[in-house]
Amino acid sequence: MNSRPPFPSSPPSQPSPYRYLGRGGSERPVRLQIIIALVAGLIVVAVPLYLWRRPRPAPIPSADAATADAGAYALDAGALASADAGLPEPVTLSPFTTIRCENPGPGRTPPERCDHITFFEDGLSRAIRDNVQCAPTGKSSITVSFVLDMDFRRKRTNLYIGKSTTVSRTRTKELLRCVKRAMPTPDWATIPHQYVKYKINVMATYPASESL
């Protein structure tokens, strides 16, 4: 009985060809799948971040804003046209004059050394300009003297018409009432001042009325 010769075995130093082919064919698809998954994950994360942080275009001005700008431009143009035409101002104010300032006790402070209380000066100027419609009218210009007393101790003010007014006080009653109503309410504790009492004066000149 003849015996079958044994298969020659591969040398120990060389791996089995079947095992090598089988291992290489299984690792490559796995690596490719991992790479594809990583790229897809980066895309999923990067795209929302870009959409969230991308610069947004400036809003287009609405029709209302354009209309408001056009209206403001028209008002500015009208004011410039009035100035160029030499039209008189509704009222002209003189610089403020401090008649008196004083503290309790003997002695008298010269008016030129008195400090200016800008809160009341600015408030009175604004109240006069905003109430031109209450002023008396005439064929010639009219000057009204406004005198304001301030008492920081009693926290009181008194506004009245001075003697330098060129019309009777009867004709200035409505104007005085309008200006008093428009005066700001003072917060006495926050207004800087050096003295307790003040008396100031400003002259308001109203142009002649063309309708008379």
Query: Helical element count?
Result: 4
Strand content: 15-25%
Number of strands: 5
Shape type? elongated
How would a crystallographer describe the biggest sheet?
A: 5 strands, antiparallel
| Alpha-carbon Rg, integer | 45 Å
Kindly report how far apart the N and C termini lie: 153 Å
* Average pLDDT for all residues: 79
Structural class: alpha+beta
Q: Give helix and strand order, one letter per element, not per position.
A: HHEEHEEHE
Poorly predicted runs: 16-24, 59-83
Please give the share of residues in helix: 25-40%
Task: Note the main attributes of this structure.
212 residues, 5-stranded antiparallel beta sheet, 5 strands, alpha+beta, 4 helices
What does this protein structure show overall?
The chain contains four helices and five strands; from the N terminus they run ααββαββαβ. The chain is of the alpha+beta class and 212 residues long.
Question: What does this entry show, briefly?
Answer:
39% of the residues lie in helices and 16% in strands. The chain contains four helices and five strands; from the N terminus they run ααββαββαβ.
Topology:
Blueprint: H1 17-53, H2 63-85, E1 92-93, E2 97-102, H3 118-129, E3 142-151, E4 156-161, H4 173-182, E5 197-206
Antiparallel strand pairs: 1-5, 2-5, 3-4, 3-5
Helix pairs in contact: 3-4
